Amino acid sequence: MEISERLKNLPVQFFASLVGKVTKAIEEGRDIINLGQGNPDQPTPLHIVKALQAAAEDPSSHRYSPFRGLSELKQAAATFYKNQYNVSIDPETEVAILFGAKAGLVELPMCLLNENEIMLLPDPGYPDYLSGTVLANVRYETFPLKPENRFLPDYESIPDTQKTAAKLMYLNYPNNPTGATADLNFFNKTVEFAKEHQITILHDFAYGAIGFDGKKPISFLQADGAKDVGVEMYTLSKTYNMAGWRVGFAVGNPVIIEALNLIQDHLYVSLFPAIQKAAVEALTGDQQCVNELVSCYESRRNALLQACQKIGWDVQAPAGSFFAWLPIPTGFTSEEFADFILEHADVAVAAGKGFGEYGEGYIRVGLLVSEERLTEAIERIGKLNLFI
């Protein structure tokens, strides 16, 4: 018995290799500071946990949820967008409940593209975008995110053949892995680009709550005409430390929302109702927990930057997300450097090449340990005398 060619063609999970190396080092008894992960380290706020507990005790939560999710969660998503971004959303036609944003990101090519059609992906970018291309049996081209362009795509430099052929484009700001953010002017240009070339836009807004230096990240849907050309996907994983809960939503263009709902009609019978009710509490309840979380990440970012400065490591401050994108010293590839500091400093990071060709020359560091451990990690690297 054999598995299908489609499954055989799925990309190797980028983080599986890193996890294996870190696990082996820990089993050897080494004190590894793991900065390679993207898993929030703080607990889900207590008021959200209590909402789950109460809903789980309600027998009505033990039945199937409506296929397309609870109306109250769709309304909560619409209310959230109005409160946070002053964007009006129709809860019945412009919201799709997702099993975490990753599910939607992987499903969308199957919803919108036919076999062998082309989509555009950022480089560097979230590795799991590639899963959707394989499962949908579509082709993809990449566009570079370069530091000289503030890690934003240069639409004029995308080849005309790609602009003409592409049907779908993924964007992600605040960006994983670079920590870059986008402004309203960029998103307005994106809408113009999408309309001119008839390209659908998916904006992955996973880190939408996490912006630094008093600057709140902008929603793609705040751009004029954004709902004409695309959707935005939001997850509760990062904003509310609910990564293990697997709940998110897409908002925007009603045709795309209907397509997402339709494919999920055939894949799922919606989320556990108690999780949906807890998500309502997260989106509509007290948001002070979010302010405190962003402050925590900003303090960690600042501690990291200060430690890098002390050892002579010239790095740029991320404007958002909970990642930092750090240039590596000369004489290494990104994977060689990641392996070197794991072996000689007991610090784990994600090699930039794992995020694409233009990730070479960088490592991604997660702000997901304490300030003290971040500082200690950089001090350990500093002892290797690589930045003299």
Write up what this structure looks like:
This protein has helices spanning 5-8, 14-27, 46-57, 71-85, 101-112, 129-136, 160-165, 184-197, 226-229, 236-239, 254-267, 273-284, 288-310, 334-345, 371-382; strands at residues 33-34, 95-98, 118-123, 139-144, 166-172, 200-204, 230-235, 248-252, 323-327, 347-348, 350-351, 362-366. The protein has 388 residues and is an alpha/beta fold. Helix 8 links the parallel strand 5 (166-172) and strand 6 (200-204). Helix 3 packs antiparallel against helix 12 (273-284), helix 5 (101-112) runs parallel beside helix 6 (129-136) and helix 5 crosses helix 11 (254-267).
Cα radius of gyration in angstroms: 21 Å
List unreliable stretches of 5+ residues: none
Largest sheet, order of strands side by side? 2-8-7-6-5-3-4
Coarse shape: globular
| Secondary-structure element series | HHEHHEHEHEHEHEHEHEHHHEHEEEH
- Determine the fraction of residues in helical runs and give it as a percent range: 40-55%
Number of helices: 15
Number of strands: 12
Mean pLDDT: 96
Give the DSSP E fraction (strand runs of 2 or more residues): 5-15%
- What's the main sheet like? 7 strands, mixed
How far is the N terminus from the C terminus? 57 Å
Structural class, from helix and strand content? Answer: alpha/beta
Briefly, what is this?
With 388 residues, this protein is α/β, with parallel strands linked by helices.
